[in-house]
Write a structure and sequence with these properties.
By secondary structure, the chain is an all-alpha fold. It is 72% helix and 0% strand. The protein has one domain. It has eight helices and no strands.
């Protein structure tokens, strides 16, 4: 896939935006929108085909939260997409938790995404189980947990993940394989 804009230009705009230049944000949005769409689509294609939450809804929620980030010193486009991936993960986890509370009659606070029946009850439970297992992994090895977060939730490549974490490609590949095995064993024993 061809990037919509040269990496250094995106980095320059991110830095300018981080320094308070709102015009840089206006120029940046169309340049990063395609990549954010790819990241959101990567995650959403794992969901049921009949859900009503669209990739665009996830992107909009992510953009709202990204724009609200205060005083982030953006390092580069990979840093930006890494944070975007974390935000997408949080949006979907919050939605899954809200659905679980709703099912239990907890009267959970509804966010804008909760109007959509995006994730089935089983998928909500699976996402929550994965997140809990990921938290346990982070307590043992934070980098491996971060690799899973960026690759699984963010849909980033090995190269992009290595760039964000400032490690080698081999380290990311090894961490990814080890983390997947650890999570499969942990979730399997947790059931």
């Amino acid at each position: 896939m061809t990037r919509p804009a040269h990496t250094s230009h995106i980095t320059e705009l991110l830095i300018s935006w981080g320094n308070g230049n709102r015009a840089a944000l206006e120029e940046l949005i169309p340049l990063v929108e395609m990549e954010l769409h790819r990241l959101a689509h990567h995650y959403m294609r794992r969901e049921n085909k009949d859900h009503t939450l669209q990739t665009t809804g996830l992107i909009n929620e992510t953009f709202i939260r990204l724009v609200d980030q205060n005083r982030v010193q953006w390092q580069n486009r990979a840093h930006f997409y890494g944070i975007a991936a974390q935000i997408m993960k949080r949006v979907l986890l919050n939605y899954a938790r809200d659905k679980k509370r709703e099912k239990r009659g907890g009267g959970a606070y509804k966010v804008s995404l909760s109007q959509a029946d995006a994730i089935s009850d089983q998928e909500s439970i699976e996402i929550l189980e994965l997140n809990e297992a990921l938290e346990r992994l982070a307590a043992i090895d934070e980098r491996k947990a971060r690799v899973v977060e960026l690759r699984y939730f963010g849909g980033l490549s090995v190269k992009e993940t290595a760039e964000i974490l400032d490690v080698s490609l081999i380290t990311v590949a090894r961490d990814w394989d080890m983390a997947k095995a650890w999570l499969a064993r942990d979730i399997g024993h947790g059931s």
